[in-house]
Amino acid sequence: MSGGILAIVSHPDDETFGCGGTLAVHVEKGYEVNVLCLTCNPAERRAEIIDACMVLGVNEPIVFNDLHVTVDPGLIRRVSDIIVEKNPRVVITHLPFDYHREHKLVYQVVKDAVEWAAHTTTYESPCQVERLLLMEVNTLIPSPHVQVDISGVIEKKKEATDRYTTQLAKFQWGYYQRFNIKKAELRGVQADCLYAEAFLEEPLTSNSPFYTRKATKSLL
Protein backbone atom coordinates (compact mmCIF):
# COMPACT_ATOMS: atom_id res chain seq x y z
CA MET A 1 0.00 0.00 0.00
CA SER A 2 1.27 3.47 -0.87
CA GLY A 3 1.52 6.40 1.50
CA GLY A 4 3.47 4.45 4.07
CA ILE A 5 6.35 5.29 6.41
CA LEU A 6 9.64 7.13 5.90
CA ALA A 7 12.23 6.94 8.69
CA ILE A 8 14.77 9.76 8.48
CA VAL A 9 17.80 9.08 10.64
CA SER A 10 21.20 10.51 11.41
CA HIS A 11 23.43 7.41 11.22
CA PRO A 12 23.27 3.80 10.09
CA ASP A 13 21.82 1.78 13.02
CA ASP A 14 19.45 4.53 14.25
CA GLU A 15 16.61 3.11 12.14
CA THR A 16 17.01 -0.36 13.66
CA PHE A 17 17.69 0.64 17.25
CA GLY A 18 14.96 3.32 17.30
CA CYS A 19 12.11 1.99 15.17
CA GLY A 20 13.22 -1.23 13.47
CA GLY A 21 10.35 -3.24 14.91
CA THR A 22 7.78 -0.66 13.84
CA LEU A 23 9.19 -0.62 10.31
CA ALA A 24 9.07 -4.43 10.12
CA VAL A 25 5.48 -4.52 11.44
CA HIS A 26 4.30 -2.20 8.68
CA VAL A 27 6.22 -4.07 6.00
CA GLU A 28 4.32 -7.20 7.05
CA LYS A 29 1.06 -5.27 6.81
CA GLY A 30 1.86 -4.41 3.19
CA TYR A 31 2.78 -0.75 3.56
CA GLU A 32 5.64 0.89 1.70
CA VAL A 33 8.46 1.51 4.18
CA ASN A 34 11.59 3.53 3.38
CA VAL A 35 14.66 4.73 5.25
CA LEU A 36 16.69 7.87 4.59
CA CYS A 37 20.04 8.09 6.39
CA LEU A 38 21.74 11.48 6.31
CA THR A 39 25.34 10.42 7.02
CA CYS A 40 27.66 7.49 6.37
CA ASN A 41 30.89 7.70 8.34
CA PRO A 42 32.88 5.50 8.01
CA ALA A 43 31.88 4.29 4.55
CA GLU A 44 31.64 0.61 5.52
CA ARG A 45 28.54 1.38 7.55
CA ARG A 46 26.63 1.63 4.27
CA ALA A 47 26.80 -2.16 3.86
CA GLU A 48 25.54 -2.60 7.41
CA ILE A 49 22.44 -0.45 6.96
CA ILE A 50 21.63 -2.16 3.67
CA ASP A 51 21.89 -5.58 5.36
CA ALA A 52 19.85 -4.46 8.38
CA CYS A 53 17.07 -3.04 6.21
CA MET A 54 17.00 -6.27 4.22
CA VAL A 55 16.45 -8.19 7.45
CA LEU A 56 13.60 -5.86 8.42
CA GLY A 57 12.08 -6.22 4.95
CA VAL A 58 12.47 -2.49 4.26
CA ASN A 59 13.26 -1.13 0.79
CA GLU A 60 16.95 -0.49 0.13
CA PRO A 61 17.80 2.62 2.16
CA ILE A 62 18.75 5.97 0.70
CA VAL A 63 22.10 6.92 2.26
CA PHE A 64 23.70 10.33 1.82
CA ASN A 65 27.49 10.47 1.73
CA ASP A 66 27.73 13.34 4.22
CA LEU A 67 30.23 12.84 7.04
CA HIS A 68 28.30 15.02 9.50
CA VAL A 69 24.89 16.66 9.84
CA THR A 70 24.81 20.42 9.24
CA VAL A 71 21.54 22.32 9.31
CA ASP A 72 21.51 24.33 6.10
CA PRO A 73 19.02 25.06 3.30
CA GLY A 74 20.76 22.63 0.96
CA LEU A 75 20.30 19.63 3.25
CA ILE A 76 16.73 20.64 4.10
CA ARG A 77 15.90 20.75 0.38
CA ARG A 78 17.53 17.37 -0.27
CA VAL A 79 15.46 15.84 2.52
CA SER A 80 12.22 17.51 1.38
CA ASP A 81 12.90 16.20 -2.13
CA ILE A 82 13.00 12.63 -0.75
CA ILE A 83 9.81 13.22 1.25
CA VAL A 84 8.02 14.35 -1.91
CA GLU A 85 9.44 11.43 -3.89
CA LYS A 86 8.38 8.79 -1.34
CA ASN A 87 5.12 10.55 -0.36
CA PRO A 88 4.80 9.02 3.13
CA ARG A 89 1.82 9.47 5.41
CA VAL A 90 4.08 9.03 8.45
CA VAL A 91 7.63 10.29 9.01
CA ILE A 92 9.73 8.98 11.91
CA THR A 93 12.84 10.79 13.14
CA HIS A 94 14.86 11.71 16.23
CA LEU A 95 13.95 13.45 19.47
CA PRO A 96 14.81 17.14 19.93
CA PHE A 97 16.18 16.29 23.40
CA ASP A 98 18.27 13.29 22.35
CA TYR A 99 21.72 13.23 23.96
CA HIS A 100 23.43 12.99 20.56
CA ARG A 101 24.13 16.37 18.95
CA GLU A 102 23.56 15.13 15.39
CA HIS A 103 20.29 13.44 16.34
CA LYS A 104 19.02 16.81 17.56
CA LEU A 105 20.17 18.46 14.34
CA VAL A 106 18.35 15.88 12.24
CA TYR A 107 15.15 16.69 14.12
CA GLN A 108 15.55 20.35 13.08
CA VAL A 109 16.22 19.40 9.47
CA VAL A 110 13.22 17.07 9.29
CA LYS A 111 10.84 19.59 10.85
CA ASP A 112 11.72 22.13 8.17
CA ALA A 113 11.79 19.55 5.38
CA VAL A 114 8.29 18.28 6.25
CA GLU A 115 7.06 21.88 6.05
CA TRP A 116 8.69 22.58 2.69
CA ALA A 117 7.61 19.27 1.18
CA ALA A 118 3.99 20.43 1.44
CA HIS A 119 4.44 23.74 -0.39
CA THR A 120 2.69 24.11 -3.71
CA THR A 121 5.14 26.84 -4.74
CA THR A 122 8.07 24.47 -4.26
CA TYR A 123 6.73 21.23 -5.73
CA GLU A 124 4.32 20.42 -8.52
CA SER A 125 3.03 17.44 -6.51
CA PRO A 126 3.74 18.31 -2.86
CA CYS A 127 3.51 15.86 0.02
CA GLN A 128 1.65 16.83 3.19
CA VAL A 129 2.84 14.41 5.86
CA GLU A 130 0.02 13.40 8.21
CA ARG A 131 2.01 12.31 11.28
CA LEU A 132 5.52 13.03 12.58
CA LEU A 133 6.70 10.53 15.19
CA LEU A 134 9.87 10.91 17.27
CA MET A 135 11.69 7.75 18.31
CA GLU A 136 13.95 6.82 21.20
CA VAL A 137 17.37 5.43 20.31
CA ASN A 138 19.49 5.74 23.48
CA THR A 139 17.57 8.59 25.14
CA LEU A 140 14.27 7.44 26.65
CA ILE A 141 10.94 9.25 26.29
CA PRO A 142 9.46 10.13 29.71
CA SER A 143 5.80 9.72 28.69
CA PRO A 144 5.25 8.21 25.22
CA HIS A 145 2.27 9.24 23.09
CA VAL A 146 2.32 6.14 20.87
CA GLN A 147 3.51 2.59 21.52
CA VAL A 148 3.68 0.00 18.74
CA ASP A 149 3.47 -3.72 19.52
CA ILE A 150 6.54 -5.34 17.93
CA SER A 151 6.23 -8.72 19.65
CA GLY A 152 5.80 -10.57 16.37
CA VAL A 153 8.95 -9.10 14.79
CA ILE A 154 11.33 -8.93 17.74
CA GLU A 155 13.59 -11.61 16.24
CA LYS A 156 13.94 -9.49 13.09
CA LYS A 157 14.93 -6.50 15.22
CA LYS A 158 17.52 -8.62 17.05
CA GLU A 159 18.94 -9.94 13.79
CA ALA A 160 19.06 -6.47 12.23
CA THR A 161 20.85 -5.17 15.34
CA ASP A 162 23.47 -7.90 14.95
CA ARG A 163 24.32 -6.63 11.44
CA TYR A 164 25.94 -3.53 12.95
CA THR A 165 29.25 -5.15 13.82
CA THR A 166 31.21 -1.87 13.73
CA GLN A 167 28.94 -0.42 16.41
CA LEU A 168 28.51 -3.53 18.55
CA ALA A 169 32.29 -3.85 18.80
CA LYS A 170 32.46 -0.55 20.71
CA PHE A 171 30.90 -2.11 23.81
CA GLN A 172 32.10 -5.63 24.58
CA TRP A 173 29.44 -6.15 27.26
CA GLY A 174 26.67 -6.10 24.64
CA TYR A 175 25.29 -2.66 25.40
CA TYR A 176 23.26 -2.15 22.23
CA GLN A 177 21.81 -5.66 22.14
CA ARG A 178 20.86 -5.62 25.81
CA PHE A 179 19.61 -2.02 25.84
CA ASN A 180 17.37 -2.52 22.82
CA ILE A 181 15.76 -5.62 24.30
CA LYS A 182 15.28 -4.13 27.77
CA LYS A 183 13.83 -0.98 26.23
CA ALA A 184 11.39 -3.07 24.19
CA GLU A 185 10.47 -5.09 27.29
CA LEU A 186 9.81 -1.91 29.29
CA ARG A 187 7.56 -0.52 26.59
CA GLY A 188 5.87 -3.88 26.29
CA VAL A 189 5.00 -3.80 30.00
CA GLN A 190 3.51 -0.32 29.53
CA ALA A 191 1.63 -1.34 26.39
CA ASP A 192 0.37 -4.73 27.70
CA CYS A 193 2.31 -6.81 25.19
CA LEU A 194 5.66 -8.59 25.15
CA TYR A 195 7.69 -5.99 23.25
CA ALA A 196 6.95 -2.49 21.99
CA GLU A 197 8.56 0.68 20.62
CA ALA A 198 7.64 4.11 21.93
CA PHE A 199 7.26 7.47 20.20
CA LEU A 200 6.30 11.06 20.81
CA GLU A 201 3.93 12.56 18.26
CA GLU A 202 4.86 16.04 17.04
CA PRO A 203 1.86 18.22 16.09
CA LEU A 204 1.95 19.35 12.48
CA THR A 205 0.41 22.61 11.34
CA SER A 206 -1.95 22.74 8.38
CA ASN A 207 -2.61 26.48 8.14
CA SER A 208 -0.04 27.44 5.51
CA PRO A 209 -1.50 29.07 2.38
CA PHE A 210 0.93 26.88 0.40
CA TYR A 211 -0.70 23.61 1.55
CA THR A 212 -3.15 21.90 -0.78
CA ARG A 213 -5.08 20.46 2.18
CA LYS A 214 -5.86 22.96 4.95
CA ALA A 215 -8.93 21.62 6.78
CA THR A 216 -10.48 18.38 7.89
CA LYS A 217 -14.15 17.66 7.34
CA SER A 218 -14.51 15.64 10.53
CA LEU A 219 -12.64 14.86 13.75
CA LEU A 220 -13.97 11.27 13.70
Topology:
Layout: E1 5-9, H1 14-28, E2 33-37, H2 45-56, E3 62-63, H3 73-86, E4 90-93, H4 101-117, E5 131-135, E6 146-149, H5 154-162, H6 165-168, H7 175-191, E7 196-202
Parallel strand pairs: 1-2, 1-4, 2-3, 4-5
Antiparallel strand pairs: 5-7, 6-7
Helix pairs in contact: 1-5, 2-5, 3-4
| CATH class category | Alpha Beta
Question: Beta-strand level of the residues, as a percent range?
Answer: 5-15%
Count of helical regions:
7
Helical fraction equals 40-55%
Low-confidence stretches: none
> What does the average pLDDT come to?
96
Count of distinct strands: 7
Say what the CATH topology is: Rossmann fold
CATH superfamily membership, which one? LmbE-like
CATH architectural grouping: 3-Layer(aba) Sandwich
Structurally, how many domains make up the residues?
1
Task: Outline the structure in words.
It contains seven helices and seven strands, in the order βαβαβαβαββαααβ. By secondary structure, the protein is an alpha/beta fold. Helix 2 (45-56) links the parallel strand 2 and strand 3 (62-63). Helix 1 runs antiparallel to helix 5. The radius of gyration is 17 Å and the shape is globular. The two termini are 23 Å apart. The mean pLDDT is 96.
